[in-house]
Amino acid sequence: GFIIGLLISVLIIVIREIFDITIRTEEDIEHSCGYPILSAVPDMLNHTTKGGYYGYGNYEKSARKKAGIGQNQNKIIGKNISFAASEAYKLLRTKLQFSFVDEVKCPIIGVSSAMAGEGKSLSSVNLAFSLSQLDKKVLLIDCDMRRPSLETKLKIQKVPGMSNFLTGQNEMYEVIQNCSFDGDESFDVIAAGINPPNPIELLSSTKMEKALQSLKENYDYIIVDLPPVGEVSDALVAAKLVDGILLVVRQDYCNTNALVSAVKQFEFVDTHILGVVMNCVGEGNGKYGKKYYKRYYSNYQGSYIANNDNQNKNSK
Question: Has residue 140 got a pLDDT over 90?
Answer without folding.
Answer: yes
